[in-house]
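Hi there, hope your week has been kind to you so far. Thanks so much in advance, here it is.
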Amino acid sequence: MNSIIVLIILCEVGFWVFIAAGLIARYVFKLPKFGMILLGATPLIDLILLLATGFDLARGATATVAHAIAAIYIGVSLAYGKSMIRWADQRFAYYITKQGEKPKKLYGKEHAKKEVKGWLQHLLAYIIGAGLLLAVIYWINDAERTEALGGVLRIWSIILGIDFLISFSYTLFPKKEKHASS
């Protein structure tokens, strides 16, 4: 297995371990400052992945789909990280420690706004990830060594367009609440 793929998996696991540890410290052990330190340390995982990927390419490796996924991971982590932590925090507080309000399902305009916001986060992730991919393509300056990066960028562009259509469709066709039959 490609070492970059292994590192991406380890980074994803590490991301959620830091979040879980932060939430446990915050709610179970009543150490809110320590919990915030753990939650705030999640961007260090992105830095590790960025450095490892850059080092691998700098020593002459041909860029693979795994290198492209590393850029996508970094973009997604930076764009969605704060909201993923907020999502986990809200659910941990409610379902584990029985604090706060139950997370509610959204319908209509509220759901449409959430979907548009999600697409904007996807766009931000795309800008960051595509910027990293283009920077690597420019840095290596060898079409053969970076062919995989361009291919992944094209696929991600199509996915971003499809996500746009789905996300904005909720403004035209709002999600309706299901009513229980009597």
Remarks:
- The mean pLDDT is 93.
